[in-house]
């Protein structure tokens, strides 16, 4: 039973009797809680980095810039994202598949969660005691302590077990609902976990078979180029693992919030399947400027990289289409009248809407980076860091804020008050402003040549390097704004969890409905073996020959180094 | 799968321009030979690389009428040589490698942007068209002294001896 009341902005905020069963509620809340704690720590590290790099503060001798940078990357890019995403996916899978998880999925979810938490703590400990200042890409032959690598391996294997929980739940639902098309949310969750498991299998191979034995001293040398290649086999799919849950929210949840419909049930599924295909055989575009890989294979992977433009264009059309139909339903006139009818006063919509706008710019920067030749003008400059702060840290994270503002009260059975909603909008504005300052300036100063991942340096007072310093101040201002927005978010999360008034009729878990005239998705879209097979085939085409080459013509390998 | 007419138009324009874009990149690469730095040439053990030619004697060597070769090693946290003098307009072939961890060789405001991976030699050819003192630096994190790793390329005008 759903009734609606006049809500935020022009949108309606329906209340509902739906509530998660206690075990599901707890499982999801534990994911979110740990993720937010990690977000807090990671952003603090980021703030001190921006200040140090601008030469505004000197860090205490016990805490190095690169140590903070490693913590920032590991905590935010690996831990926060993975655990938040899995929590969100579990919530949607439970909601759209009979309102509850099957018992086996709950058990797998908890095992995965505990492994990920233990793994994260181990890795963080190794970083804090300065035994793992290797940054989140941990490029050999920089050698961290075994604790760091074991921690990362636990994090990854834990996430696979969580993925198995999603597959189990999906499989059980399909068995009970023969012949029915699966809920879009659950379909997308399965696609994301397939993509994630395929890609992270290869970073696990790197960590378990190359780095752990070498870090323990069981083998003397490591093949550096092979380890970098295995990392980037995973590394670019990782960014789609971050992005696709935001796409889920944009595709599935937002249509409900704006009062529109999901335009098609088939095309969003096709979009996600294309992401499975084109997010893995593309890692060489991170290695364009390094030796040991033949140009032909680099170019081939550039072509495959650019193929993700196809699902991105499908998404853009679909989302704007949904907005337009929703606006026209509310009486919008003319070609662009619907733009004014969107619920900008609703934080559940506003934050992800800003995210979408920023993503257009972020995506364009990505095309520059992956352009075979043009990459040389910006490779390893701050342009790159600017790029993923615009895509991940702006678009994805703003969407996660937009999710949290209703997901927390749904779970805590408390009211999303108009005050919290307003605070959510202010928080999103501060975050977006901070990120635009920070990542926009990183793009500019990167074009002027400032390298990424570098502590404060004037490079012997060279005039080119001195010219970068004023930009560093702007980036530090961005960092300060982001810290304020983060503190505001932590307060909001705490308030919505523990303080806001209790209620029996919580805010609705928004799940969009598919447009009545939409066609049923063809069966082939749900035949996973076909898509997994194609994904493996594409990876073999893109990677088999160069990897065999690397192994056959490998140099003697590198000894471990700990230059920190 | 049915796709609305406008969506089909939108996708056709998008995919069409993507194909044109990729063809242009391909022509630049394989027709005109503009590739990112690359080399499949192998080296020996990175720790003993300075015993054998060419890396036993890093430096700048003239190899032709207007051609030079720069043999360079990188290591924690410096380069050899750290100062390179080359004439304006000459073809400069860089041959560089690392003796320990992964380093970078980057000259801001040029396309010289190389990854130096231990065990491999990175090659790249560049012609400076502006005289002056260019900064080069390491742009791949290599340890606590990473931000200090740098050098200078002095491009002089052979017609004007005062530079």
From TrEMBL, chain A:
<feature type="transmembrane region" description="Helical">
    <location>
        <begin position="184"/>
        <end position="212"/>
    </location>
</feature>
<dbReference type="GO" id="GO:0009060">
    <property type="term" value="P:aerobic respiration"/>
</dbReference>
<dbReference type="InterPro" id="IPR033943">
    <property type="entry name" value="Ba3-like_Oxidase_I"/>
</dbReference>
<keyword id="KW-0249">Electron transport</keyword>
<keyword id="KW-1133">Transmembrane helix</keyword>
<feature type="transmembrane region" description="Helical">
    <location>
        <begin position="392"/>
        <end position="411"/>
    </location>
</feature>
<dbReference type="InterPro" id="IPR023616">
    <property type="entry name" value="Cyt_c_oxase-like_su1_dom"/>
</dbReference>
<dbReference type="Pfam" id="PF00115">
    <property type="entry name" value="COX1"/>
</dbReference>
<keyword id="KW-0813">Transport</keyword>
<keyword id="KW-0472">Membrane</keyword>
<keyword id="KW-0679">Respiratory chain</keyword>
<dbReference type="GO" id="GO:0004129">
    <property type="term" value="F:cytochrome-c oxidase activity"/>
</dbReference>
<dbReference type="InterPro" id="IPR036927">
    <property type="entry name" value="Cyt_c_oxase-like_su1_sf"/>
</dbReference>
<feature type="transmembrane region" description="Helical">
    <location>
        <begin position="266"/>
        <end position="284"/>
    </location>
</feature>
<feature type="transmembrane region" description="Helical">
    <location>
        <begin position="148"/>
        <end position="172"/>
    </location>
</feature>
<feature type="transmembrane region" description="Helical">
    <location>
        <begin position="423"/>
        <end position="450"/>
    </location>
</feature>
<protein>
    <submittedName>
        <fullName>Cytochrome c oxidase subunit 1</fullName>
    </submittedName>
</protein>
<feature type="transmembrane region" description="Helical">
    <location>
        <begin position="528"/>
        <end position="548"/>
    </location>
</feature>
<feature type="transmembrane region" description="Helical">
    <location>
        <begin position="68"/>
        <end position="90"/>
    </location>
</feature>
<feature type="transmembrane region" description="Helical">
    <location>
        <begin position="110"/>
        <end position="128"/>
    </location>
</feature>
<feature type="transmembrane region" description="Helical">
    <location>
        <begin position="232"/>
        <end position="254"/>
    </location>
</feature>
<dbReference type="InterPro" id="IPR000883">
    <property type="entry name" value="Cyt_C_Oxase_1"/>
</dbReference>
TrEMBL record, chain B:
<dbReference type="InterPro" id="IPR002429">
    <property type="entry name" value="CcO_II-like_C"/>
</dbReference>
<dbReference type="InterPro" id="IPR051403">
    <property type="entry name" value="NosZ/Cyto_c_oxidase_sub2"/>
</dbReference>
<dbReference type="GO" id="GO:0004129">
    <property type="term" value="F:cytochrome-c oxidase activity"/>
</dbReference>
<feature type="domain" description="Cytochrome oxidase subunit II copper A binding">
    <location>
        <begin position="63"/>
        <end position="163"/>
    </location>
</feature>
<dbReference type="Pfam" id="PF00116">
    <property type="entry name" value="COX2"/>
</dbReference>
<keyword id="KW-0186">Copper</keyword>
<dbReference type="GO" id="GO:0030313">
    <property type="term" value="C:cell envelope"/>
</dbReference>
<keyword id="KW-1133">Transmembrane helix</keyword>
<keyword id="KW-0479">Metal-binding</keyword>
<dbReference type="InterPro" id="IPR008972">
    <property type="entry name" value="Cupredoxin"/>
</dbReference>
<feature type="transmembrane region" description="Helical">
    <location>
        <begin position="12"/>
        <end position="34"/>
    </location>
</feature>
<comment type="function">
    <text>Subunits I and II form the functional core of the enzyme complex. Electrons originating in cytochrome c are transferred via heme a and Cu(A) to the binuclear center formed by heme a3 and Cu(B).</text>
</comment>
<protein>
    <recommendedName>
        <fullName>Cytochrome aa3 subunit 2</fullName>
    </recommendedName>
</protein>
<keyword id="KW-0472">Membrane</keyword>
<dbReference type="InterPro" id="IPR001505">
    <property type="entry name" value="Copper_CuA"/>
</dbReference>
<dbReference type="GO" id="GO:0005507">
    <property type="term" value="F:copper ion binding"/>
</dbReference>
<keyword id="KW-0812">Transmembrane</keyword>
<dbReference type="GO" id="GO:0016020">
    <property type="term" value="C:membrane"/>
</dbReference>
<dbReference type="InterPro" id="IPR034214">
    <property type="entry name" value="Ba3_CcO_II_C"/>
</dbReference>
